[in-house]
Predict the structure.
Amino acid sequence: MSAPAVGANQIEQHRTYLLRYASLQLRDAGAAEDAVQDTLMAAIEGAARFSGKSSVKTWLTGILKHKIIDHVRRQSREQPLLSEDSEGSESDIVDALFLEDGHWRQPPSNWGDPDKVLENKAFMAIFEACAKGMPEKTARAFMMREVMECDTDEICKALNVTTTNCWVLLHRARLSLRECLEMKWFGKK
Amino acid sequence: MPIPRIKLPRPMRLAIVKKLTCKDVSVLISREHEHPLGAGERFWLRLHLYICTGCRNFKNNTQIMRAALQRYLEQDKDR
C-alpha cells in the first residue's frame, strides 16, 4: 500500500478554520464540532485519495461542505416549519427599513475604505456578533451562499424553499446584517 | 379618439414608464450577488445608482460584508 498523500497532522492543523466555517453555518456548537470531526475522520481515512491537485485546505473544505449540506437538509426535512412564521415575515423586517414610498428610512452610509475596516479587530468582533445574531433560516441561506458559495438551487434544495423564497431570504439577510453593523459599528462614529 | 403622443427623449420616456424605488433596487442589488440580472434590470439599476447615494452605499456595504466573512474565516487562531 502506498503512503497517504497527506499526513494526519497536516489535516489536523486546519481544524480551527474548519470549525469557524462550520459554526457560521450551523450555529449549534455541538453540530459544528461533529461536522468537523466527521470531516477530519473522512479525510484521514481517505488521505490516500487526496490527489494534490488542490490545497489540503480546499480539499477539507469540500468534504466539510458536504457534511454541512447533509446536516442542513436533514434538519429542514425534520422541522420544515422553521420558517417565516418564527422569524417574522419578510415584510416585517424589510418594511421596517423603508418608508411607504420605498425610500430608505435611514439611507445606508458610506463605510469608507474596506481594507481599513476589515483590518480592525473590534469591527470583526462586532461582525461576528451580528452574523451570529441573524435569524436562523436567514443566516443559513446567507452563509450557504457567501461562505459555501452554493448556488441558489443548492440552497433552495437544502432549505426546502422555492427560488423566489431563497432570494427573499438572502435579501433579508443582507439588509439585516447591514443594519446591525450600521448601528453597532458605523453609527457610533 | 387616439390619445395624442408627445415625443420625449428616450431615457425620459423610460423613466416615466418605470421608476424603481430604493426598496426595489435593494432587491436587485442583493439578487445580483446570486444571479446575473437581465439587461433591463441592469439598466434600471445603473440609472438608479447613478442618482442615489444611499443605494450606492448599500451596494458597497454588501461587498464589504462579503469580504468581511472571508476575512473572518481566515483570521489567525490568536483571537
